C-alpha cells in the first residue's frame, strides 16, 4: 500500500520557480528555487538547502540541474517531510565549471587560493552571492542555524570547497563523488591546509568504489585526514560497485534526509560576500 506522501509526491521541475541572478561582478546565472507552501503566513523560519549540480547538468536551460542527474536527490529532499527553502543554481556549459578541475579541494592550487582568501571561481562566486541574497532577504525568513549544501561530482567538489571556505555558515554537507582529480592531484600540504576548516561541520560523504572518473581514493584521503585530526562529525559511505553517477543511490539512503535536517549550527557567522541587489 502506498503512503499518502507517495501519492502526493512533488516533482521538483513542476513546483520550483525560476530566477536569474546577477552578482556584484556582473556575472549572471539562472537558478531554480522552492519556497514551502504557506511560508508567507507561517510565522516561522525555514532551513535552506543548496544543491550544486555536476558538470553533466551545465547549461542555460535552467532545468537540467533539477531534471537530470540531480532530479532524484532534489525530489528526496522536497518530499522528505522537512519543509525547507531549496535553491539550485546552474553553471553555464563547458568550459565553465563550479570548481576548476586543475584546483580541486586537496590540491596545492586550491589550498593556495583559499590561503589568499580568494576562492576565485566566477560562477561559483555568483552562486555564493545568490545564497547570500536569500539569507539576507528577511522576506524568506531563513533559519541561519540550518543551512545545508550538497552536490555530486564537480558539485561535490564545490560542496567540499564551500564548507572549507565558509566553515561558520553551513550546518551540514553531503558531497558525492566530489574529490580526487588526476589533473589536480592531492598533496599532504593541500589536504592538511583544509582539514581544520572541516572539523566542526557534519559531513556525510559518498563515493562509489568503481568510479572511473574520480577515484574513491580522493574522498578516502579527505575523510581519513579529517578523522586523523580528531574530526568526529565525518561520515563516509562507500557504495559497492558504484560508478561515478551515484546520485540516485545516495538519494535512497535510509535516514539521510532526517540526518541532514537534524543538524544545527548555533555558531553561524555570515562570512559570505554581500551581493549587490540589482
**Category by helix and strand content:** alpha/beta
Helix content: 25-40%
Span from first to last CA? 50 Å
Give start-end ranges of low-pLDDT stretches: 1-6
Q: Biggest sheet, strands in spatial order?
A: 1-2-4-3-5-6-7-8
> What is the N-to-C succession of helices and strands?
HHEEHEHHEHHEHEHEHEHH
The pLDDT mean sits at 93
Kindly describe this structure:
β1 and β2 form a beta hairpin. The chain is an alpha/beta fold and 278 residues long. It contains twelve helices and eight strands. An eight-stranded mixed sheet has the order 1-2-4-3-5-6-7-8, sandwiched between helices. The N and C termini lie far apart (50 Å).
Task: Give a short summary of the structure.
The protein has helices spanning 4-7, 12-15, 39-42, 64-67, 71-78, 108-115, 122-136, 154-165, 188-198, 216-228, 247-251, 256-262, and strands at 17-22, 28-34, 46-51, 85-89, 142-152, 172-176, 203-208, 234-239. With 278 residues, the chain is an alpha/beta fold. Strands 1-2-4-3-5-6-7-8 form an eight-stranded mixed sheet, sandwiched between helices.
Layout of strands and helices, then pairs:
Elements: H1 4-7, H2 12-15, E1 17-22, E2 28-34, H3 39-42, E3 46-51, H4 64-67, H5 71-78, E4 85-89, H6 108-115, H7 122-136, E5 142-152, H8 154-165, E6 172-176, H9 188-198, E7 203-208, H10 216-228, E8 234-239, H11 247-251, H12 256-262
Parallel strand pairs: 3-4, 3-5, 5-6, 6-7, 7-8
Antiparallel strand pairs: 1-2, 2-4
Amino acid at each position: 500500500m502506498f503512503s499518502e506522501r507517495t501519492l502526493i509526491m512533488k516533482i521538483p521541475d513542476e513546483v520550483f520557480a525560476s530566477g536569474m541572478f546577477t552578482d556584484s561582478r556582473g556575472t549572471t546565472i539562472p537558478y531554480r528555487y522552492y519556497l514551502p507552501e504557506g511560508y508567507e503566513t507561517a510565522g516561522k523560519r525555514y532551513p535552506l538547502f543548496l544543491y550544486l549540480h555536476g558538470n553533466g547538468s551545465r547549461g542555460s536551460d535552467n532545468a537540467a540541474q533539477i531534471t537530470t542527474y540531480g532530479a532524484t536527490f532534489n525530489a528526496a529532499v522536497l518530499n522528505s517531510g522537512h519543509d525547507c527553502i531549496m535553491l539550485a543554481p546552474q553553471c553555464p556549459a563547458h568550459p565553465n565549471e563550479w570548481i576548476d578541475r586543475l584546483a580541486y579541494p586537496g590540491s596545492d592550487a586550491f589550498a593556495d587560493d583559499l590561503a589568499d582568501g580568494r576562492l576565485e571561481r566566477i560562477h561559483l562566486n555568483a552562486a555564493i552571492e545568490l545564497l547570500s541574497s536569500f539569507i539576507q532577504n528577511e522576506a524568506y525568513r531563513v533559519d541561519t542555524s540550518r543551512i545545508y549544501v550538497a552536490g555530486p561530482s564537480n558539485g561535490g567538489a564545490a560542496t567540499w570547497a564551500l564548507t572549507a571556505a565558509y566553515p561558520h555558515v553551513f550546518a551540514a554537507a553531503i558531497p558525492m563523488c566530489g574529490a580526487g582529480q588526476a589533473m589536480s592531484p592531492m598533496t599532504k600540504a593541500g589536504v592538511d591546509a583544509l582539514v581544520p576548516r572541516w572539523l566542526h561541520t557534519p559531513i556525510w560523504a559518498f563515493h562509489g568504489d568503481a568510479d572511473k572518473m574520480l577515484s574513491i581514493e580522493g574522498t578516502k584521503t579527505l575523510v581519513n585526514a579529517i578523522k586523523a585530526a580528531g574530526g568526529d562529525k565525518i561520515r563516509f559511505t562507500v557504495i559497492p560497485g558504484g560508478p561515478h553517477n551515484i546520485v540516485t543511490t545516495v538519494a535512497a539512503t535510509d535516514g539521510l534526509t532526517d540526518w541532514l535536517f537534524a543538524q544545527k549550527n548555533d555558531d553561524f557567522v555570515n562570512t559570505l560576500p554581500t551581493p549587490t541587489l540589482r
